[in-house]
Amino acid sequence: MKEERTKTIVNEIRYWKQNRLLPTEYCDFLLALYTQGESQDGHENQYTNSSYGYLFYLWLALSLFLIPLSFLVIYFTEMGIIMQTGLLSSFVAVEWIHVNWLKYKESDWLLIPLTVVILVFLLASITLVQYFYGSGWSLYITLTLNCTLWVVVGRVCRVQALFYSGILGTILLFIYIVL
């Protein structure tokens, strides 16, 4: 009888977690408490022991490869600014789709593609501003807007590292401008 009752409670907690009736941390704690630290559903890690896991990690590696590839496109090719901007925009779009997919899946790996998106977007926006307006106040405004975007995206996606990076970037930029 006690085992059946525990199973009912565990199923109810999983329902709460799936439908976000309680925060994930609370549900994980309660599940660990009632299952005595053992996973009964066999879903310890959704990215291991499958071809899906291999593709998932390959996609993350390719995401990280986009950062040096973006620098290569900007600084070491003879492409026109329209071609460079189009290529960097496609990188940002593909990675943003990846970010939204990982956010939908509630993955712990959200930070990697999100970092790639913001860094490639930063590179693209700085390149465009320098091409059309040169350095100076327009560059500072662009950097401030990027840092503000980091704060907003960090708050929306609940990524504290991004939120604090945006705040720190804004503070350092203002210190640089003043000094």
Automatic annotation (TrEMBL):
Q: Which UniProt keywords apply?
A: Membrane, Transmembrane, Transmembrane helix
Q: Transmembrane segments in this chain: where? A: 54-75, 81-102, 109-131, 137-154, 161-178
What is the protein's given name?
A: Uncharacterized protein
Task: Please spell out the taxonomic lineage of the organism that makes this protein.
Answer: Bacteria, Bacillati, Bacillota, Bacilli, Bacillales
